[in-house]
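Format notes (please read before filing issues)

Several people have asked whether sequences and structure tokens are stored in separate files. They are not. Every record keeps both together, in the order shown below: the sequence lines, then the token lines. Line labels are part of the format and must not be stripped during preprocessing.
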Amino acid sequence: MVAWICSFSCGARNFFSTWKPLHKSMASVEALGEEASDHRLRARSYIKRPREEYHDHLVSDYFSDNPLYPPNIFRRRFRMQMPLFLIHIVDELGKWSGYFTTRVDALGQQGLTPLQKCTAAIRQLANGSAADHLDESLKIGETTSMEAMKYFVEGVIAVFGERYLRRPTKEDAERLLKIGERRGFPGMFGSIDCMHWQWERCPTAWKGQFTRGDQKVPTIILEAVASHDLWIWHAFFGVAGSSNDINVLQQSHLFMEELKGQAPRVQYMVNGNQYNTGYYLADGIYPEWAVFVKSISMPISDKDKLYAQEQEGKRKDIKRAFGVLRRRWSVLKKPARLYDRGQLEKVVLACIVLHNMIVEDEKKVEDIEENLDLNEAPSTVTVQEPEFSPEDYVPFERVLQNEQVYLNEERAVVELGKSEDRSGKLTSDVWYLDTSVSNHMTGNRGVFSELDQSITGTVKFGDGSVVDIVGRGTIIFAAQDG
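Then the structure lines:
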């Protein structure tokens, strides 16, 4: 009897010692579940911000008849003049959405004013600051500040994008071509290049796709075209950072209007020859298309050196535009802290729209009016209306035909015919013009119709061998299309 009682007691002791930690773990799980399910039932923490008082401070600082800060400080902090921000942007956004109006909640308390929301958004874009950085000066919380920025960039694109993200119209094309002609490049619309924006919140699984060796960090690429006045005429954003400029060009919509016949038709003269296709200045990576004019990588003659110097100098317009854009909107200079690529695209396009608005607003009178010079030769540029309007239906076969003719030109096969080599033996040479280089060489002197033997130098090949240059000349050939 005693033994039985002792064995029962030992078993009970073991049971209760095992059940106690299990009970504690179950209690902790239940507590976590209640905390996760009931967090919305608890009272939210509320910070009573004196919004109306700080709205009055904002008005007295910048927007009153006698503001505390002068116009130059407003220009530095808001990146634009006060009338452009207050009259043109804030008022138009108020007409676009009720979010940018002063609303009253259910308790009769006044919410944030349009000035506070737009100021919070423009400061985030201009300074690249965190969402809660302006809570002390504007009394706007982190979530509301981020929400205001998202609505702001969406509204800027919706209201002003049609005008300030447009492709060149007939009048724009005529003005750009005349400017290019005065700068020594008839037929030039502008310069093209790409810019990388670091993506800090890139998902780990995508980092290999968005990281390139020279960048070291995940980036997203912006392709743009800019003119001499820093106006950005084309913007294409969203390609993974591991791509190069050619990969971006293949996905871009840069030539879509030209292929559909909806772009202005241009004509201009160069050295007595008429051309019907405008072009962009580009660096060496872009393909050998008629719409791209590139520099000479290894100029030899003085003429080639002068051309390379002028082309590389005028090509810096897009670099200047990128520099001003990132300097003006520091959010593009700092790593992107948003997860959504679509939202990042809206931020970039909104910054470009605001950039073009500032360029137009601050353009000097002498930049708008043409200086007439009676001693200057008249312009040879003529611009006509597009063949099709944007509302017209364009057959897809026409797009494919134009793409084959203007963009995907095959390499020309040059038949030089028979000639004598150095030993006097007749040979037949066939040259394939390589689109990746600017100079082509041959050891057969008889193929040249003209030869300038005053040009000398050396060329070093990849295997280390060196060949002497004994002249530069011209050849006459017939391509595949006659």
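For reference, the curators noted about this record: The two ends are 118 Å apart (CA to CA). The mean pLDDT is 80.
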